[in-house]
Amino acid sequence: MHRRARPSGAGKTTLARCLAGLLRPAAGTVRWEEPDGARQGRAAPVQLVAQDAHGALNPRETTERALIRPLTGLRGLAPGPAAAEARALLGRVGLGPGVRSRRPGALSGGERQRLALARALAAGPRLLVCDEVTSALDPDTAREIVELLDELRRVDGLTLVLVTHDLAAAARCADRVVVLAAGEVAESGPARHVLERPGHPATRALLEPRRAAGPRGGRSA
């Protein structure tokens, strides 16, 4: 798991969109190579989970329908198997049978983020880019989402790129950390080394509890 950490205005969303292929870099290249044969049967090997799950979801679709659509459209499953896979995916991200017929407006913030994650998984990705997926959640829910991402990484073999300004939120599951400042790499290396022995002011600032929590009032990066 790679984690891209940076304060506000450092280019986090731009980077995430470039990694997901939604935005062409103004300079340089973005390269990601899958293992031989990994692309077979996968229509969308890279998926982005956005910060605003509410805005990313269709307010008219039920949770189950939100998953059936990519399962049939991207992966070519028939309606019956797609419905079964949708239910399995909902369970995989911790959403029970009671939410299948609900629409996004009837879900909590944590439930919407889980649904957005399940929808990305429905496309069958090998690389998952998560852009500030915990920034709008309470600490307990954020921790649960990070633990879920770590499980997907370990059990399903997904490659994860977690874009965040809160280093503590994902410290337990990142292999490497890259800290950005003013659109450039300020520091990078194994997660434990960067977090325990930060060498750049931007990294030290991100590790300060007050800075990591954000200003009073909840402004997110």
Question: Topology, pairings included?
Answer:
Elements: E1 2-5, H1 12-19, E2 46-49, H2 53-56, H3 63-73, H4 79-92, H5 109-122, E3 127-131, H6 139-156, E4 159-164, H7 167-170, E5 176-181, E6 184-190, H8 191-196, H9 201-207, H10 209-213
Parallel strand pairs: 1-4, 1-5, 2-3, 3-4
Antiparallel strand pairs: 5-6
Helix pairs in contact: 3-4, 3-5, 4-5
Can you describe this structure?
By secondary structure, the protein is α/β, with parallel strands linked by helices. It has a single domain (12-33, 41-174), classed as P-loop containing nucleotide triphosphate hydrolases (Rossmann fold). 41% of the residues lie in helices and 14% in strands. The chain is built from 10 helices and 6 strands. The chain has helices at residues 12-19, 53-56, 63-73, 79-92, 109-122, 139-156, 167-170, 191-196, 201-207, 209-213; strands at 2-5, 46-49, 127-131, 159-164, 176-181, 184-190. A 6-stranded mixed sheet has the order 2-3-4-1-5-6, with helices on both faces. A hairpin with a 2-residue loop joins strand 5 (176-181) and strand 6 (184-190). Helix 3 (63-73) packs across helix 4 (79-92), helix 3 runs parallel beside helix 5 and helix 4 (79-92) crosses helix 5 (109-122). The longest helix has 18 residues, at 139-156. The radius of gyration is 18 Å and the shape is globular.
